[in-house]
Design a protein that fits this description.
four-stranded antiparallel beta sheet; mainly beta; single chain
């Protein structure tokens, strides 16, 4: 541990914006909540790893893909536990909901490969020529039994070049069958995602998708199960079944029937005029590229353009933020680890790991609560 400074501005006042007088303005900043607990994160370590591209969390360990063609398993001290070499330009990684399978997108081969989270035993691979590019993966089994009997899970691939999020049914042995799309660039409502990036599956098997279009800067929430009544034209020959956008935050004006926002700017009243330009105010984004969550449903968004991580509760309300250009420079990936401290108590979001897109380093943060549990005293410099 090379620094232990509190990296979040502690909320000390209630900020209330007046009723928004029109469409397209920022959502109101909510009342500040608490002083410490998960409202404070401390810098708890920096690990030089110039090759790290992206990480995923499973079984309280980290799975990291790197530009040295590797997939590594790492503990909370970022020590290497296990290593798999020889991948073909791995750029994205995720786990299934049971934390048993590690999925990796190998860009050099246009291939989705699967590995056992326990010992990196190969579980199959499939070349997917319809994927033009891939920057993030997610896996969710919602809807599999109804639409794809026999499949283990669906794997979702964010493809910014195609402006879609692909949905593939993954079968034992490495067969991947296209099952339509989750969302695509087919309009201005938030059911469409123009430049998809990070994805995350929450405790209710709902999926969040980051939108990095510089005129949108949102994070959307979907029910990802294939909507078999959807007849929207697909960009290729795949079935067009898409997901359904879920409303979890009150808008400043009534959104179109099939569209809504989750995190970020409030929508315009008229779908044709929706905008969401970059912003550094609390609760808004400048290029939200990755999202993760803890066991209580809180969301952690890597706000890359603002070099910070913002945290929202399970209802989409802004809670707090931490980081800056020194401690979380241009974050591109974020992972959250809960920690059971006794038989009845869990410190949710005890550790947060952030991969920087600028410095070739992985940064570790600890919650104030968990610092107290570990050290039995407040951190240095804490009032």
């Amino acid at each position: 541990m090379n620094r232990r400074r509190i990296m979040i501005a502690i909320a000390v006042a209630i900020i209330v914006l007046g009723l928004l007088a029109g469409c397209g303005e920022k959502i109101a900043i909510p009342e500040a909540v608490g002083l410490f607990s998960v409202s404070a994160y401390l810098d708890y370590g920096e690990f030089l790893d110039a090759g790290a591209r992206q990480l995923a969390v499973a079984n309280n360990v980290l799975y990291v893909v790197g530009d040295d063609q590797s997939l590594t398993k790492r503990n909370l001290q970022y020590d290497e536990i296990e290593r798999l070499d020889g991948l073909d330009d791995p750029v994205a990684v995720c786990t299934d909901e049971g934390d048993d399978i590690i999925f990796v997108w190998e860009a050099g081969a246009g291939r989705l490969s699967a590995w056992s989270s326990r010992d990196f035993a190969p579980l199959g691979a499939a070349e997917l020529p319809d994927v033009q590019s891939a920057n993030h993966l997610a896996a969710c089994a919602a809807g599999v039994d109804e639409a794809s009997p026999g499949a283990i899970t669906y794997v979702y691939i964010a493809d910014p070049d195609s402006a879609v999020v692909h949905r593939y049914a993954w079968y034992e042995g490495g067969t991947a069958v296209p099952v339509g799309i989750l969302c695509r660039d087919g309009g201005l409502s938030t059911r469409s995602v123009h430049q998809p990036a990070g994805m995350f599956v929450d405790n209710e098997s709902k999926m969040y998708v980051c939108e990095t279009d510089p005129m949108r800067n949102w994070v959307h929430r979907f029910d990802p199960a294939p909507d078999q009544t959807d007849v929207t034209p697909a960009p290729d020959d795949s079935d067009p079944w898409r997901g359904t956008v879920i409303l979890i935050a009150a808008a400043t004006c009534v959104p179109p029937v099939e569209a809504d926002f989750v995190l970020g700017d409030a929508p315009e009243c008229n779908e044709a005029d929706w905008v969401g330009g970059a912003s550094d105010v609390e609760g808004a984004f400048d290029a939200p590229v990755a999202v993760a969550g803890d066991g209580q449903g809180w969301l952690y968004v890597a706000d890359s353009g603002n070099s910070r991580v913002q945290i929202f509760d399970e209802n989409g309300a802004y809670e707090l933020q931490f980081g800056n250009t020194e401690l979380t420079p241009a974050p591109v990936s974020v992972g959250v680890i809960d920690h059971l401290i006794n038989s009845t108590t869990t410190n949710y979001g005890a550790f947060v790991f952030v991969v920087s897109g600028d410095t070739g380093a992985v940064y570790k943060f600890i919650s104030y609560d968990h610092y107290l549990a570990v050290h039995s005293e407040p951190p240095p410099d804490q009032p």
